[in-house]
Design a protein that fits this description.
About 55% of the residues lie in helices and about 15% in strands. The chain has about 550 residues and is of the alpha/beta class. A 6-stranded antiparallel beta sheet has the order 2-1-4-5-6-7, with helices on one face. Strands 8-12-13-3-14-15 form a 6-stranded mixed beta sheet. A hairpin with a 2-residue loop joins β6 and β7.
């Protein structure tokens, strides 16, 4: 049960909080008072689009919050376990949007994404907005409504059909890979043979390009490396009089006499001699480096040629060497499949025909289930419409099934459904869209909504001006039906019809006020006297005169 709704800074609503009672909750008010704003606010909890334009002027954010008790009775077990509801099944849902356009959804204080909030609320509330009357007359929605009424039984049949359809799609994909034209298949084999030969001769290895680029840089630098090694060797070569070893040897000769008398001079002389020996080692190492890294123009040309080949293959087969290697593996596999194509093609064609036959059997089974459900739905809707005064009405679900073929496998369903109706005795059944009377349309919609709500066990139904296009006796029948179905759930109904408002268990008035600077919309719970005044206004078109009040009292007594 929905026990509380709080709306803050949403459009013209500054702050309103109310506690819907069980049964039929009526909401009325002057045109433009903000009834649609209330529906938009509640719709935000159902995952409807929110924008920052919905934030009240000069405020930072808008928010909507709803509290439910005993929500665990209506939610599937997996959601009850995920939400970890308390013993009262309390569920507090909230959604807000700030001035930067960022939204936030919470369930029992825990942040969730919008789709999860929408999933949870979908088990608790259904809003019939003013555009539903057009939606229900679109034939493409009829099959969805029928399946929704059928529930688990239809879901299982659809699941089996979809599994079998996927089997057929997989076989068709294999046939497409083989190619339907033998000449085209031969051309593909020739092309793949050329590509495989080209790539196998290239014999690429993982990470080969990176290694070649590194080698190319070294080989391109060898000439300069040789020059610099020679320069360094010249400076430390013992064969030259002005080389460092010769100069150090002269230093040692000068220190020979001082070293006989001075300990520090002996130490320096000894260290210089060690330096001469070490420099000799460095000179030997430099000669080895010169020998090892001589210029190799032939290898450089070979490396460059290999890199050019890789670049060419990358343009044809992939962005990286790994991509090219993967392409070769795929080409080999496809080549083998095509080589065996003729034999495999025939067997796949036979298999597809068999699986298409199985798919059509699954479609017939699904069609049978839908036909059974359709019979029940026809009786239910006819009964509901009879309760709403359409005594001679006939309602039928026209079902057709399309045989599965290779060409129509992409269709997401095998059936089509169209709601047909004959409102009066002697009239032929016609598509629902042909109904001319707005009153009949509203009654059909109310009947379907009532039945689907029963099928879904929804605890809260919200009707936004269900009385559009009805008047007089029809309005009274709609009122009685709303009162009847409210015995098992909460019904919130926005209306401008006194006959409907008079049936309220709780009556709320939406009122717009202004102090000349700010305009706001408020929601007021009416007592009996205020209800009489509002009913009189609805009856008289805004002028609550004495006669209108007397009629309002009679409506409330009925």
């Amino acid at each position: 049960m929905l026990t509380r709704i709080a709306i803050r800074d949403f459009a013209l609503i500054e702050m309103t909080e109310f506690e819907p009672e069980s049964g039929l909750v009526i909401i009325s008010g002057e045109t433009g008072a903000g009834k649609s704003i209330l529906i938009d606010a509640i719709g935000a909890l159902l995952g409807n689009r929110l924008s920052r334009e919905m934030i009240r002027h000069d405020q930072e954010k808008a928010s909507v919050e709803a509290q439910f008790l005993e929500a665990d009775k209506y939610l599937p077990d997996e959601l009850v376990n995920e939400l970890d509801l308390d013993e009262n099944g309390e569920l507090i849902l909230s959604r807000e949007i700030n001035s930067q356009g960022r939204g936030l959804c919470r369930i029992n204080g825990r942040m969730v994404n919008q789709s999860y909030l929408k999933q949870v609320v979908g088990y608790l509330i259904d809003i019939h907005g003013q555009n539903d009357q057009q939606t229900i007359f679109r034939q493409e929605t009829h099959l969805k409504l029928l399946d929704r009424y059928g529930g688990t039984s239809i879901d299982l049949g659809k699941s089996e059909w979809n599994k079998q359809r996927q089997v057929c799609l997989d076989i068709k994909a294999q046939l497409d890979m083989l190619g339907r034209d033998p000449e085209e298949r031969a051309r593909q084999i020739d092309l793949l043979a050329y590509q495989i030969d080209e790539l196998e001769r290239a014999a690429l290895k993982p990470n080969e390009e990176e290694k070649l680029i590194k080698r190319q840089k070294l080989l391109s630098s060898l000439e300069r490396i040789q020059e610099n090694l020679s320069g360094a060797l010249d400076l430390i070569s013992a064969d030259e009089d002005d080389a460092i070893p010769a100069l150090l040897a002269q230093s040692c000769a000068y220190l020979e006499f001082p070293a006989r008398h001075l300990e520090p001079a002996r130490n320096i002389s000894r260290d210089l001699a060690a330096m001469i020996d070490q420099i000799a080692v460095y000179a030997s190492d430099l000669r080895d480096l010169q020998e090892r890294y001589r210029s190799q123009p032939a290898e450089l040309e070979k490396v460059q040629h290999r890199l050019d080949l890789i670049s060419k293959l990358k343009r044809k087969y992939g962005k990286t060497v790994d991509d090219i290697i993967h392409y070769l593996e795929m080409a080999r596999a496809k080549y083998q499949v095509l080589q065996d194509g003729e034999k495999k093609f025939g067997s796949l064609r036979e298999l597809l025909e068999k699986e298409l036959s199985n798919l059509n059997l699954a479609a017939e089974a699904l069609m049978t289930k839908r036909a059974d459900i359709s019979s029940k739905l026809e009786l239910e809707i006819a009964r509901q419409l009879q309760d709403l005064g359409m005594k001679e009405v006939k309602f039928k679900v026209d079902l057709t099934v399309t045989k599965a073929t290779e060409e129509n496998l992409n269709r997401t369903d095998c059936c089509q459904a169209a709601f047909m109706i004959s409102p009066n005795a002697g009239e032929p059944l016609k598509p629902l869209v042909k109904i001319a009377s707005g009153g009949e349309a509203s009654r059909v919609l109310l009947a379907i909504k009532t039945i689907l709500a029963d099928a879904d066990s929804l605890p809260v139904l919200i009707f936004d001006e269900i009385d559009t296009g009805v008047s007089g006796h029809t309005a009274s029948m709609v009122a009685r039906k709303l009162k009847q179905i409210s015995s098992g759930r909460q019904i919130m109904c926005i209306t401008h019809m006194a006959q409907i408002a008079a049936q309220a268990d709780q009556h709320l008035l939406i009122e717009k006020t202004s102090d000349g600077i700010h305009t706001s919309t408020d929601l007021i719970v009416l007592d009996r006297e205020a209800r009489l005044k509002e009913l009189a206004r609805l009856l008289s078109g805004g002028i609550a005169d004495h006669q209108a009040r007397e009629l309002a009292e009679k409506l409330m007594i009925q």
